[in-house]
Write a structure and sequence with these properties.
Distance between the termini: 25 Å
Largest sheet: none
Helix content: 55-70%
Radius of gyration: 13 Å
Number of strands: 0
Shape: elongated
Order of helices and strands: HHH
Length: 68
Amino acid sequence: MICGHGATSGDLDHNQLFYLLSRGIPEAEAKSLLIAAFVGEAFDTIAHDGIREALVAYAGTWLAPRGA
């Protein structure tokens, strides 16, 4: 998935969110997926494998749905 918004902060792309919601993905999970895609692009630029993997793991924990 390609990040659809060009800023590091702000609203998620409403069209992308609608697309995920219309396919039955719960809103919290859809938002997490979009944020993960955005963050993942930034992490892809990190050359050091260990640091990149640690950040991906941390972000995955932070973005995991709660209360399920």
